[in-house]
Design a protein that fits this description.
Number of strands of chain B: 10
Strand content of chain A: 5-15%
Number of helices of chain B: 7
Structural class of chain B: alpha/beta
Oligomer: heterodimer
Mean pLDDT of chain B: 91
Shape of chain A: elongated
Order of helices and strands of chain A: HEEEHEHEHEHEHHHHHHHHH
Helix content of chain B: 25-40%
Number of strands of chain A: 7
Strand content of chain B: 15-25%
Radius of gyration of chain A: 25 Å
Low-confidence stretches of chain B: none
Strand order of the largest sheet of chain B: 6-7-8-3-9-10
Number of domains of chain A: 2
Distance between the termini of chain B: 37 Å
Number of helices of chain A: 14
Structural class of chain A: alpha/beta
Largest sheet of chain A: 5 strands, mixed
Low-confidence stretches of chain A: none
Strand order of the largest sheet of chain A: 4-1-5-6-7
Largest interface: A-B, 14 and 27 residues
Distance between the termini of chain A: 34 Å
Mean pLDDT of chain A: 87
Radius of gyration of chain B: 18 Å
């Protein structure tokens, strides 16, 4: 099964990325062609597997779509692009609208690079038949998000998510298996402590551990890898804490099915594989086959990764990250309730 | 026991199965106030299950289980119960004192009383010199004693001990029973399970349990008299033979 998921998740290319395309170009005459339109040709040549074009009325609308996260890039072909390109072919010093603007959301550097490459390829294809070298340019100087984002900026939110999820889960599973084996769970069971209090206590403890862990990770990332955190860092920590709560509650649930620590460790692949592959930690969610993507959104870590990238690279505030936070909180709540139930059930 | 006052612990015709295995098959037993009761029987006889049902750690399929008159799970009176599970049930990376602190906090013991209580229970189990020792570094017998101390921090009226003498050397076993007797003298009710039948002669009453059923019950001297034997061990075997003879 792991091979299956691995194969599917890693073999795919980035695909089906929403891109807002604005084409202000109009046809012009060139040689024996009366209505040459380089803009239209570029749009036609955009790789249809990679790019799902979303129409936008103008640049402002396209940019707004990227800002809201509805599109990963805005491609803007300026007015009179064809005419100015033709003019510059004959007059090297001509300065006109010969640049295609690609305004990227670079919060996911892999996806951004693929999009930019696709636009460059489409531009080359469009001018190939002119028979002359055309001085067209791709202007990517104004990304909408992640202007200075390096791979580390993209990577750190993923690493944080993975580390918090894995460590919290492992600690809880081994901790609870130990509590059961050592008999302390029985001793606590015959005490005024309720299952709810026990689960909450564990949550508080492990979210503190997770916060500490993320503080270290972020500090190292900022100092050593010089990543920049654009948004409010408190939001990043809130996401980490919620992820920790969901992870530890999941750990309690899983520990109920394990009799020994060795058994608990066997669960690990089933936790690691989906999280590793589906939640866009190393490999963008966008590179997973389209039909598998809904599964990504069934894994809590996906919300954490996306939420953290949105805060740390896009600089989004609470109002925009709220959906991710709500989703994580919901996962946490459901897992907590189930964890409490599983502890109650073990009394039968 | 005065009339109307419920017993410290009561199981009445309790049945409990785990899948196909019948752990308790109509077990009835009653631990009176201030009584030292020994539940004796081989491993797998259902002693631990009986305790778990009484304390609300497991739910019976049929029958009645009560602690101080409160049906299981006895939440409202759990404060008055001290439980020593079969396993040491301690946090091994914490010191003796830290373990006591944890359970004192769980039982909501007033912080002002902690130091006094800790000293008392540790003196009682003769571990007052080991308070700051990490449990991991203690000997087996010391761990057992710490476990008992942890069950006593909140000064319970009923102490339930599941096989407290397993893996304890004979000398220490004798001192354990001295402790239990002195607790009884303080007016505590005590339920002890053990499969070392002989050591239970110091109980007020003992119950012999086999296959989830009580085969005989009474003060040790009575049981010896009824079977014309000289040791509880022989008495137990005699009752087992009778039980088998009566119900083939």
């Amino acid at each position: 099964m792991a091979m299956f998921v691995f194969g599917l998740a890693f073999s795919g290319n980035v695909s089906d990325i929403p891109v807002a395309v604005v084409n202000h170009d109009s046809p012009a005459a060139f040689g024996n062609q009366t209505d040459l339109s380089l803009g239209a040709s570029i749009v036609e040549h955009l790789d249809p597997d990679l790019i799902r074009m979303v129409p936008a009325a103008d640049e402002a609308a396209a940019v707004a779509m990227v800002e809201r996260g509805e599109a990963r890039a805005a491609v803007i072909i300026p007015r009179d692009f064809t005419r100015d390109v033709i003019a510059s072919i004959f007059n090297a010093s001509f300065r006109g609208n010969t640049s295609v603007f690609v305004r990227l959301d670079r919060s996911n550097v892999n996806v951004a690079a693929d999009l930019e490459r696709a636009v460059a390829v489409a531009m080359q294809e469009a001018v190939k038949d002119l028979g002359r070298p055309a001085p067209i340019k791709l202007d990517d100087s104004q990304p909408i998000y992640g202007k200075d984002a390096k791979f580390a900026d993209f990577f750190i939110p993923g690493i944080m998510t993975f580390a918090v999820f894995l460590l919290t889960n492992l600690l809880t599973i081994t901790g609870f298996v130990q509590e059961r084996l050592a008999g302390t769970l029985d001793r606590l069971g015959a005490s005024p402590l309720t299952e709810g209090e026990l689960v909450l206590g564990y949550s508080l403890g492990y979210s503190l551990v997770a916060l500490l862990q993320s503080v270290i990770l972020i500090t190292v990332a900022v100092v050593v890898f010089q990543i920049t955190i654009v948004g409010p860092i408190a939001l990043a920590f809130l996401i980490v804490a919620l992820l920790a709560i969901a992870s530890q509650a999941l750990g309690i649930l899983l520990s109920a099915a394990a009799r020994t620590e060795a058994q608990a460790v066997q669960f690990l692949p089933f936790l690691v594989f989906p999280v590793f592959l589906l939640s866009g930690i190393f490999w963008p969610v966008e590179a997973i086959p389209v039909w598998l993507r809904p599964l990504s959104w069934a894994v809590p870590t996906t919300y954490a990764v996306e939420g953290l990238r949105s805060v740390m690279i896009r600089g989004w505030g609470l109002e925009r990250v709220a959906p991710f936070i709500l989703a994580l909180a919901l996962f946490g709540l459901v897992f907590l309730v189930l964890a409490r139930l599983s502890l109650k059930r073990s009394r039968r | 026991m005065e009339a109307g006052e419920p017993p410290a612990l009561l199981l009445d015709a309790v049945e409990k199965s785990f899948g196909e295995v019948k752990a308790l098959d109509g077990l009835t037993l009653r631990v009176g106030r201030g009584e030292l009761y020994g539940l004796l029987g081989p491993n797998g006889a259902g002693k631990t299950t009986a305790i778990r049902v009484a304390l609300g750690l497991a739910r019976q399929d049929a029958g009645r289980a009560e602690v101080f008159g409160v049906p299981s799970p006895p939440r409202s009176v759990i404060q008055r119960v001290g439980f020593v599970p079969q396993e040491p049930a301690l946090y091994r990376d914490l010191t003796v004192r830290e373990n006591l602190e944890l359970f004192a906090a769980v039982f909501g013991l007033d912080r002002a009383r902690w130091a006094d209580r800790f000293l008392r229970v540790l003196k009682f189990v003769e571990l007052d010199s080991k308070a700051d020792e990490v449990v991991r570094n203690l000997s087996g017998g010391q761990v057992r004693r710490t476990s008992i101390a942890a069950a006593m921090v909140h000064d319970p009226d009923l102490l339930v001990l599941d096989e407290p003498t397993v893996g304890v050397d004979p000398e220490l076993r004798v001192s354990f029973w001295d402790h239990f007797a002195s607790l009884k003298d303080q007016g505590k009710s005590i339920l002890i399970t053990t499969h070392y039948v002989a050591e239970a002669s110091r109980c007020d009453r003992v119950g012999f349990v086999r296959a989830g059923k009580l085969v005989a019950e009474g003060p040790p001297a009575d049981l010896l008299a009824r079977t014309s034997t000289s040791s509880l061990e022989d008495a137990f075997l005699a009752f087992l033979r009778r039980d088998r003879g009566e119900s083939p």
